[in-house]
Each structure stands twice: as C-alpha cells, then as structure tokens.
Specification:
This protein has 222 residues and is α+β, with helices and mostly antiparallel strands. Helix content is 33%, strand content 23%. The strands form 4 sheets. The protein has a 5-stranded mixed beta sheet. It has a 3-stranded antiparallel beta sheet with strand order 2-1-3, covered by helices on one side.
Length: 222
C-alpha cells in the first residue's frame, strides 16, 4: 500500500507544504509534486490521517521520496541552527540551495555570519559515493550527510524537523576542515603557517607549543 500524499507544492508561493500547514479542501491551493495536477487537502477528519488527494482520479503516487527530500530542505531553510555532533550546534543565517562548488552540487549550503559554511546532503535514495566523497575532502569543505532512507514518507513535519535539526543518529560528518587539520603531521602544519589563515595558524601553534591541552581548547572554541 502506497503512503498517503502529505507533501505538496503551493501554487502561488511555490513553497513545499506539509498537509497540516494548508487549508482544507480545494482552498489548499496546492499541486502534486509528481504530475503537477491540482490537489485537495483532507485534513479535517478525525478517523483518517490528514492527506492530499488528486482533484481528478489519478494513479499518481505524488512522489513521496521527492516530497520528503524537498520538505527536509524547506525545514533547514526555516531553521537557524543545526546540531553537527554532541558538542557542537552550528548557527547559520544564510541558506543556499544547489550551490555549485567547482564540480559538486550539494543539496544545501548553510552559512554563518563569519562566512563559515557546511554543505548538507539529504540522502533519501541517493547517497554520497566514493568519487564525490574524495572531491569533498580534496576541496576541503565541511560536509554533513543526513540519512533519511528509512524515514516514513508520510512522516509529520515536527518529527522530521527533530531528526534534521536536533538528532544525531542519522548524521554522518563526511569532512570537517578543522578536524582534518588536526590529523596532519606537525611537520606539515609547521611548513604551512606562512600560507594559511588565522585559524590554521592557531591550530599549528596549539599542536606545536600547547600540546593536547591546546588542541582540546581549540576544538572547544570552534
């Protein structure tokens, strides 16, 4: 049995909407993500799960995988932070969609006020392969992958928001620039001090002069 359609696109605003966010019936003003036909919102019943149905009879599934992927991006656009790991919440004030970096195009890029950024890949059916992983590491960009493959396609928006923003179980750090820098041999770091920025210089100084305590201090700070 196919999951009910719970995600659609609003015709006027072009925004991806969850069923609980729209008016009932034809007043929802939404169209199907798959076929583009008009939808009717059935979100007032007490017995059935709120869902969309096509205005005219259709065998269209509504593309639940696409819907989940697009809703996840919409949630990240609406938020102002994301938990990267157990000790780090990354605040951001700018969201860039499908921003190409050389020859890779992540789903979304989150940028904070100081210009630091994280690429976020939302994996529903397609995951980062070895070729893309090597490019991300080679380009030395922060990247996080969020695994939504086993998430119910008709999940409610708040549960999905919690998975994306708060929870860590589904998140994999593909590359973290600062941690990658920590793993470099000290000799390599020392030789690069003149050509790197302030953060890289601080990393080198911490490793060479402050030892483990300096490294831990720097990790806590950033």
């Amino acid at each position: 049995m196919q999951p009910k359609i719970t995600i659609a696109r609003h015709r006027r605003t072009n925004k991806v909407m969850h069923i609980i966010e729209v008016k009932n019936g034809k007043k929802c003003g939404c169209i199907c993500l798959e076929c583009g036909e008009k939808l009717i919102a059935a979100n007032k019943g007490k017995k059935q799960q709120p869902h969309f149905r096509h205005d005219n009879e259709s065998n269209c599934s509504g593309s639940p995988e696409t819907g989940l992927h697009l809703l996840a991006k919409e949630i990240l656009k609406e938020s102002k932070f994301i938990n990267i790991d157990y000790h780090w919440r990354f605040p951001y004030n700018e969201v860039l969609l499908e921003q190409r970096i050389i020859d890779i195009q992540p789903d979304i890029m989150l940028v904070n006020e100081s210009g630091e950024s994280w690429l976020v890949e939302i994996a529903v059916t397609h995951f980062i392969d070895d070729v893309k992983r090597k490019k991300i590491i080679s380009y030395n960009v922060n990247c996080l992958e969020i695994d939504l493959r086993n998430v119910p396609r008709d999940i409610d928006k708040e549960s999905l928001r919690k998975m994306l923003i708060d929870d860590l179980d589904r998140k994999t750090i593909i590359h973290h620039k600062l941690k990658a820098k920590m793993k470099e041999p000290v000799s390599e770091k020392t030789s690069k001090v003149k050509s790197v920025g302030l953060v890289d210089a601080l990393v080198t100084i911490s490793l060479v002069y402050l030892g483990i305590k300096g490294v831990n201090w720097l990790l806590d700070k950033y």
